[in-house]
Structure formats: C-alpha cells, structure tokens
Amino acid sequence: MVIIGGGLSGSSTAVHLSNKGYSVLVLEKSSNKRLIPCAGGMAASMTNFLPVDINKAIETKVKKVHFTYESKDKVVAELSGVSPFLIVKREVLDNLLIDTAKSQGTLFINYVKVKSLEKNTDSWKIKCNDENYNAKFLVIADGSDSQWSTFLKLGPKKPRYAQTASIRLNELGNFSENSVRFDFGSIKYGFSWAFPLKKSVNIGMGTFIGNYQIKHNGLSKKIINYFGFDTDDYETIYKRLRIWNGFYNLHIDRALVVGDAASICDPFLAEGIRPSLLSSFYAAEAIHNCLSTNDHDLSNYSKIMQFKWSKSMAWGKRIAEVFYRFPQTGYRLGVKRKTAPKRIAQILSGEMSYSDIAQRVIKRLLFQ
Questions:
Q1: By the 8 A CB rule, do 276 and 261 touch?
Q2: What is the per-residue pLDDT across 257-301, written as a single tens digit (0 to 9) for each?
Q3: Class of domain 2-53+90-157+245-324 as given by CATH
Q4: Which of 31, 121, 206, 279 is the most exposed place for a label (fewest CB within 10 A)?
Q5: Residues 184, 108: Cα–Cα separation, whole Å
Q6: What is the model's pTM?
C-alpha cells in the first residue's frame, strides 16, 4: 500500500493497515511539522477508532462549553458525566500515530514530491522526484490543498473551502477549567473559537460562505481581545480548509481518498479530526476486505462514509447557509434556546447528528 500524505488521516490509515500486517509506505512532501494549525477538538468516542493509547496527546477534557455573541450575551452548556469532548495537541497526536505506524513496520519517506500517478491493470505506479513505487492500493491523504484527489476525480469536482486562521497563545488568561469558548457574530459568515491546552490556548477563526477573506489587519487582535487576552506576541496562520460540499464517490479502482483531501470537514463547525479518523478507519477496513477476498472493489467505503458522515453533513451545510447569513437571529433562536447549547455539544461529541435537529432549526430561522 502507498499513502500519499503523512498527516493525521495518512498516519492513522497507516496505523490501521500496518496493525493488520500489511506493508505500508507513506510519502510525505514535508518534514515533521512543528506547529499544526488545528484547534484540537475531538470527540472522545474517536478513541475507539484508533488501536493506540492517545492519553499523551490529550490536553483538556471538556466539561463546559461557553457561547457568546460579539463577546457578550453568554450562554453556558454543562456536559455531565464522562467528558464526551477532548482537546488534543495535534503535534503530539500526529507524532504518536507516526511512531506507532513505524513500530508496526510502516516506512515513512519525507521530502517526496509525487509527480504522476499511473493506473495499471492491478496496481498503481507512483512516479516521484527521484524514485518510482508500485502499490496494489493507493490512499490519497494530502490534505485540503490536495492535487491528487482532484486529478483522480475523487470527491466534488469543485471543492468548497472555508477560510481559517489559527493562533496559539502561550498563556491561559482567565479561562475556567475544562471549558471551551465559541463566539458568533465576530466573524462574517462564520465564528471564532478558543480551546485551552495545558499551558496554552488555541484560538481560531473560520468563515464558511462565499470565500470571504479573514486575512486583514486588526481582526486577529480583535478576536484575542474578545477571549480576554491582550498581547502582540503571536503569529496568525492562515489556511484554506476543504469542507463538505455534496455526495460524491470517495473511491475509484484500487484507490480512495481520506481526511481533508476528501472534502468531508464539517461545513458548520469546522470539525476535522472526527471525519479524518472515521475515514481512515473505514478506508483501512475497505482495503483489508478487498485483500482478504482477492477483490479490488472499494465502493463500500464510499457507501459507509455517506451513511456514517455525509448524511449529517448535508444538513450541516444547510444550517450553515442560513445561520451564518443571519447570525444574530441564529444566536437568539438557536444558541439561546434552552436546549440548544447542549445539542451543539452533543453534535461535537458525536452523540447527535445534524439530521436529528436540522429541519426544526432551519424552519425556526427562516420563519423568524
């Protein structure tokens, strides 16, 4: 097996496949990453989809979710029982997966530029800058800027992007213990968030409609002030994020796409870790089933991802298109409703899907 991309989705796919005894090669264009621009929010249930103890990567077990509108009008949701939502440090999580895959026999090669992909009868030929490789199955995991998912016509023909910005502050400010914050109204067509680690805070912004740009002076400073910080010692990392944009096949003959490259990121809350880990798990299962039965039909992967993820995201996209166009109304009729904060927390934790609440939410927003 060859996996193009050694990030979260690529390394977790490698863990699953090598854990089953398969020979896996991961081709990564860069070196090991230092700071990964990711909030780190992860449903606790996702630990069931990894044959790895990730406790070293867990920074916060979330008990409270705070919502505000332009830093005011606070609403708090209490999460009872065992925390269903975790904050992980992505650099630690990714390296943990890479080390586990390596210990199981996976070979990682960095600084590799893939030049072309060529399909033969029963294999793929991967041409790189200094060497060629052959694989019975190919996994595309090269992230939101993927060129190979587009080349192989995997996922939407025209990917849809959220514009995001990430900041890590090496202080905790006045954050209450085990809490995360969301602020609506501060970002046009989107929202901002603050997720605490043990000794720092990940602050982010995302806008989800019409390629609205958030890269301009003053916005980052405004957002960190909203969350109670007053400092100029930070760097803002900007990134395009492929978000869900319809039902499409995520496979072709002997090849499939996982993670951000598959355009499966949540179009309402920008959740990316859960779909990355889900797609990696089911991709490995699909390849394993093919090899076990001497088959090459990966269509079950696209079907199960549609059932497990895309049906909910179809409703998530509709909610986003209404909510972010009328954020003040959305906050008043959505977030401020008695049960709404808990519902959002349940969606983040994977306990509920958008389809469970979508029709009521959209009708409420439209008719008000």
A1: no
A2: 999 999 999 999 889 999 999 999 999 999 999 999 999 999 999
A3: alpha beta
A4: 121
A5: 41
A6: 0.92
